[in-house]
Structure formats: structure tokens, C-alpha cells
């Protein structure tokens, strides 16, 4: 985490001078004086009033998001100066030797499963004069970067009420996701208070509707279900925040502490817990980014695979077309061969064998018979040789397909061996827990 206090030495000197003003007050003023936090800059403590040093020291000790080191130094300087003046952060009149802890529980009731209300989702009136609004899938797509599981919309007598809800996983992580989305609405000034303002901006330039959102409360859920009865009611229950969120997060924190202890035996448990809690959101965000990158890579790989398949189909069609053209040409040649054969037979049959002398008629008949006999014999030989040629051709095709299939199997075996070697090369190391405490 970056710290403004460490980034600029001149600013450090300026802030230190501001803090030194506190040490010019008297002991009587220690518990009565009101002031702002000198360590905050454009933060909540810069405008908030702290009555006495007790609340200011508590603020400086617990601030964990802005200018952390400067706040810790302020708390240490205040406590040291108060000690030198013979006082403490205990209010006058209190008895030393007695302690007072927390008097009220920090627990609160929360809506379960975690939900975030989204407002201004109504669009326009339909033909039946009832309001239409955003659909479930469209609403989920607008918040696809958050771990939302379902979306619902509130309807009434006049249709869509412009009120929708995003439902998160029923877990501590789901609640953290809902809180993260709630904080996003706060940061961009589209939270509950902004929606309740009289002059809220429901439309952006260009007629685009501005969505508002906030973490759901019991009142919000009752308002959402106002016109829903029976199965159409959105089911929820009020649960303990400590039970559903704090305790599971503590368990996660303890598990992380144990893991950190194995890696770094010299680091204290409390310090490890703070590191884990401070990096939890970053790790979750990185995990989501990694998942998105993996999805992108898998999609690209699938697209490439489809391209290769299309290319192979195109190549296969090209060769099949060539073979088809060869077959058609051969069929044309066969038809032409048959035509010539029939034409010659017709000439022989049309030969005049009844005119002329007896000897001439006999010779012409013998000539026609010899021609017909030779033609029939030649056709028989042709058919026999054609059958042998076709059989040899089919055997060659079968052999070629066998050779191709064998080569394809061999190629797949080579890929299997190479991929197996790659997985073996990057095989994860075996984890063994240490027995030492």
C-alpha cells in the first residue's frame, strides 16, 4: 500500500508542524478540546470533529486505509506527550485500576442471502399501458464483473416498478462481493442517499438511464415484495453479521495465518493476519482477472481449432471435387465407348447379305458372323480386364486408407507422448506439511 507520508519529505515536515500544534495545549484541555485530525488530507478526519484526545487517538490508531504511517506516528506522539504532562487518555473523574470494555455488541442483522438493490431499471410503457423494464440477463451483464448469481425485478399493478435486486452467493465471500458493489455505488455517487435526493439525475446525456444501487435492508426487501405473494415473493431471512460473515472470515484468516506461519516461522500471528486481510481483495481481483484471461485463451484456442477444421474441410472438398471430375470424365468415356460399339454392330447388321451371287452372299454372311463373333469376344475380354482393373484399383484405395489411418494413429501417439512429457515436466511438487511447531 502506498503512503503519502513516505512519498514526500517536505509534506512530512508540514504535517509534523501541524501535529506539533496539539502539544501546546494544557492538561485541562486534553479531554475537552475539539479539533480535526491533522494527519488526514482530503479524508474523513479532515472535516470530522474529535472531542478530546481519546477519540482522536482511537481514530489515529485504527485508521487503516489512508496515510497509515502518519496516523500511527500521530497516535504515538500524542500518547507520549500526554504521558509527559502527567495525564492519559482517561477522562477526568475515572478511577484508575478499573477497566471498561465494550458495552454493546457490534453485531447487526443483515439480509441473507446477500443482495444489492438496483434502482431506475424501468424503461418504457408497453402496448397494454404497463411499464416495461430491464431483463434478468441484461441486468446480470451490466454487473458481470461481480460474482452475482441471480437477478430479480419488482412488479406491481402497473408493471415494472423500476426496482431490481442482484442476489449473491450465500457465503461470506458473497457478502464481501455485495459490499464491494455497494462501495462502488458510493464511490461514483449513485448510492441510496444520492437516489433519495430530490434533484437526482435519473438520465445521463443522450437519454441513458443512470442506475443507482445499495446493499439491501429488511425495509428494502419488504418494499420489493410489496406486490408479490406466495411463490412470487423473493425469499430472504435476517441473519447475524458476525455469524454469517465475521466468523467465516475469521476462519479464513486463521487458515491463512497457519499457512503463513509454515512459510515464515519468525513472523507474528497478528502481523500475518493483517497482511492476509489487506491483500484479500487484491488476490480476489487477480483471481477474477486470471479466470477471465483463461476464458479468453480457451476461446481463442477454440476459434483456431474451428479455423483448422474449416481449412481441412475445404482441402477435403477440393480433392473430392477433383476425384468427382475424374469419375465423370471416365463415365463419359464409357458412354462413348458403348456408343461406338453399338454403332459398329448396327453397321454389321445393316449389311446387305441377300444380293449378288450365292458365293458373294455366303462370303458377306461369313464376314458379318466373324465380325460379330470377334466383337463379342473382345467385349468379354474387355469386361474381364475391366473387372481386374477395378478390383486392383479398389485394393490400392483400401491399402492407401490403411496407410493413412496408421500414420494418423502414429501421429496421435506422438502427440500423446509429447503432451505427457510436458505434463511430467510441469508436474506440481508434492506438498509435505512440516511436523515442527
From TrEMBL:
Keyword Transport included in the entry's annotation: no
One GO term of the biological process aspect: defense response to virus
InterPro entries reported in the protein's UniProt record: SGS3 (IPR044287), XS_domain (IPR005380), XS_domain_sf (IPR038588), Znf-XS_domain (IPR005381)
Keyword list, A-Z: Coiled coil, RNA-mediated gene silencing
Stretches assigned to the XS domain: 107-222
Coiled coil: 298-350, 379-410
Domain of life: Eukaryota
Domain (Zinc finger-XS) ranges: 37-75
Protein family per UniProt: Belongs to the SGS3 family.
Protein name: XS domain-containing protein
Organism: Triticum turgidum subsp. durum (Durum wheat)
Amino acid at each position: 500500500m502506498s503512503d503519502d507520508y513516505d512519498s514526500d519529505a517536505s509534506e512530512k515536515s508540514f504535517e509534523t508542524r501541524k501535529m506539533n500544534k496539539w502539544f501546546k495545549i494544557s492538561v485541562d484541555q486534553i479531554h475537552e478540546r475539539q479539533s480535526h485530525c491533522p494527519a488526514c488530507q482530503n479524508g474523513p478526519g479532515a472535516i470530522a470533529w474529535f472531542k478530546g484526545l481519546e477519540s482522536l487517538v482511537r481514530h489515529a490508531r485504527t485508521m487503516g486505509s489512508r496515510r497509515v504511517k502518519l496516523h500511527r506516528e500521530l497516535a504515538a506522539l500524542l500518547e507520549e506527550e500526554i504521558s509527559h504532562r502527567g495525564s492519559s487518555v482517561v477522562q477526568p473523574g475515572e478511577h484508575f485500576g478499573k477497566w471498561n470494555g465494550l458495552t454493546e455488541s457490534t453485531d447487526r442483522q443483515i439480509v441473507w442471502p446477500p443482495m444489492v438493490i438496483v434502482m431506475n431499471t424501468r424503461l418504457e410503457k408497453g402496448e397494454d399501458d404497463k411499464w416495461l423494464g430491464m431483463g434478468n440477463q441484461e441486468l446480470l451483464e451490466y454487473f458481470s464483473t461481480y460474482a452475482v448469481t441471480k437477478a430479480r425485478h419488482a412488479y406491481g399493478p402497473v408493471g415494472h416498478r423500476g426496482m431490481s435486486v442482484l442476489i449473491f452467493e450465500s457465503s461470506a465471500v458473497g457478502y464481501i462481493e455485495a459490499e464491494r458493489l455497494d462501495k462502488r455505488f458510493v464511490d461514483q455517487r449513485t448510492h441510496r442517499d444520492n437516489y433519495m435526493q430530490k434533484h437526482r439525475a435519473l438520465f445521463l446525456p443522450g437519454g441513458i438511464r443512470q442506475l443507482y444501487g445499495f446493499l439491501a435492508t429488511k425495509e428494502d426487501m419488504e418494499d420489493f415484495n410489496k406486490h408479490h405473494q406466495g411463490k412470487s415473493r423473493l425469499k430472504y431471512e435476517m441473519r447475524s453479521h458476525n455469524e454469517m460473515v465475521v466468523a467465516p472470515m475469521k476462519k479464513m484468516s486463521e487458515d491463512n495465518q497457519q499457512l503463513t506461519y509454515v512459510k515464515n516461522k519468525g513472523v507474528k500471528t497478528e502481523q500475518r493476519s493483517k497482511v492476509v486481510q489487506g491483500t484479500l481483495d487484491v488476490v480476489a481481483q487477480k483471481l477474477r482477472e486470471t479466470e477471465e484471461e483463461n476464458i479468453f485463451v480457451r476461446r481463442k484456442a477454440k476459434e483456431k481449432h474451428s479455423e483448422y477444421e474449416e481449412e481441412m474441410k475445404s482441402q477435403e472438398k477440393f480433392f473430392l471435387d477433383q476425384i468427382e471430375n475424374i469419375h465423370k470424365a471416365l463415365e463419359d468415356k464409357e458412354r462413348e465407348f458403348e456408343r461406338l460399339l453399338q454403332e459398329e454392330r448396327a453397321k454389321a447388321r445393316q449389311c446387305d447379305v441377300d444380293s449378288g451371287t450365292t458365293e458373294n452372299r455366303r462370303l458377306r454372311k461369313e464376314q458379318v458372323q466373324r465380325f460379330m463373333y470377334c466383337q463379342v469376344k473382345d467385349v468379354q475380354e474387355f469386361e474381364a480386364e475391366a473387372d481386374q482393373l477395378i478390383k486392383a484399383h479398389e485394393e490400392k484405395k483400401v491399402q492407401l486408407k490403411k496407410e493413412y489411418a496408421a500414420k494418423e494413429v502414429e501421429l496421435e501417439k506422438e502427440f500423446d507422448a509429447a503432451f505427457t512429457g510436458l505434463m511430467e515436466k510441469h508436474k506440481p511438487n508434492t506438498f509435505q506439511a512440516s511436523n515442527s511447531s
